[in-house]
Amino acid sequence: MSSTKSPLRILHLYPRDMNIYGDYGNILVLKRRAEWRGYKVEVIDYNPGDNFPKDIDVIVGGGGQDSGQDKVQADLQKISHKLRDLADNGTPMLVICGLYQLFGKYFQTHDKRIIHGIGILDIETIAESERLIGNITIQSQQFGDIVGYENHSGQTFLGKNAKPLGMVIRGVGNNKKDKSEGACSNNVIGSYLHGSLLPKNPHIADWLIEQAATKKYGNFESKNIDDHFTSLAREHAMKRPR
Ligand code: GLN
Fold first, then answer.
1. For residue range 218-227, what is the model confidence (pLDDT) as tens digits?
2. Which domains does the chain have, with CATH numbers?
3. Among the atoms of ligand 1, which is closest to the Cα of residue 62?
4. Is the pTM for the entire model greater than 0.90?
5. Is 97 one of the catalytic residues?
6. Active-site residue (options: 194, 203, 228, 236)
């Protein structure tokens, strides 16, 4: 029985500086859906200067202002080798907007400053004058329709080692040129979708939990969860005007 096992450990990356437009909802949904399946869960906050914890099973990070990205940049470089090892080992990760950009190679701000990323995702981001704001729906081969809300000035371009999370049906996504949204590599997902993402798209939460549980315990308790109200919320969100 999973409740006798050691807890699933979720690392919340930079909750103080990178946590905007409801991104904390991603943590709540991951925790609750794992608990509904009988897993014990620990959420560990990691902020700049903290000791990087051991035995992490899932990593989640959110968006923030450019100033938030400035604040975490040095620390992110410091822990980059640990994050890269975990990513190489198949640890599932979800990073949104500001941290999505910094999991890439760099973010170039409006005043042409470079905020360095850690290159786990093969992407590059450049701030443009127009902010891309509004409801967004994308279609993903792996996850079907995904719905959320975007608000960013950075436009992101994928290199050959990243594949998009999905293609945009409504909204803008990574950039104004190619209709792609987000990027995936190994078990790392980056996306511009706030909203928050996981409450509206719980199948992605379940996938993250499945990867983490299978890696840690060797199997996954795939109990069905009643998603009636979530489905209504998703349908409603998809009908909202841009
Ligand atoms: N500073 C970034 C941008 O505007 C990130 C925004 C965010 O995380 N919402 O592109």
1. 999 888 899 9
2. 2-239 (3.40.50.880)
3. 8
4. yes
5. yes
6. 194
Side-chain-facing half-sphere of 33: CA atoms under 13 Å: 29
DSSP strand E in the chain: where? Answer: 8-13, 41-46, 58-61, 93-96, 106-108, 114-116, 123-140, 144-158, 166-170, 180-181, 183-185, 188-191
Predicted confidence at residue 3, as pLDDT, reads 52
Question: What atom of ligand 1 comes closest to residue 194's alpha carbon?
Answer: 9
pLDDT tens digits along 164-175: 999 999 999 999
Which protein residue has the closest C-alpha to ligand 1 atom 1? 66
Question: CB of 182 within 8 A of CB of 173?
Answer: yes
In angstroms, what is the span from residue 12 Cα to ligand 1's centroid?
18
Residue 47: which pLDDT band, with cuts at 50, 70 and 90? very high
What pLDDT, on the 0 to 100 scale, is given for residue 221? 84
Q: Per residue in 10-24, pLDDT tens?
A: 999 999 999 998 999
Site to probe by mutation for ligand 1, drawn from 71, 73, 152 as the one with most ligand atoms within 8 Å of Cβ, is: 152
Q: Is 194 a catalytic residue?
A: yes
C-alpha distances out from residue 209 to 92, 134, 219, Å: 8, 28, 11
Using CA positions, which residue lies closest to atom 3 of ligand 1? 152
* Protein residues whose CB sits closer than 6 Å to any atom of ligand 1: 20, 63-66, 69, 97-98, 127, 151-154
Q: Is the pLDDT of residue 1 over 60?
A: no
8 Å CB contact between 221 and 38: yes
Residues pairing with 171 in the sheet = none
Would you give the DSSP letter of residue 194? B
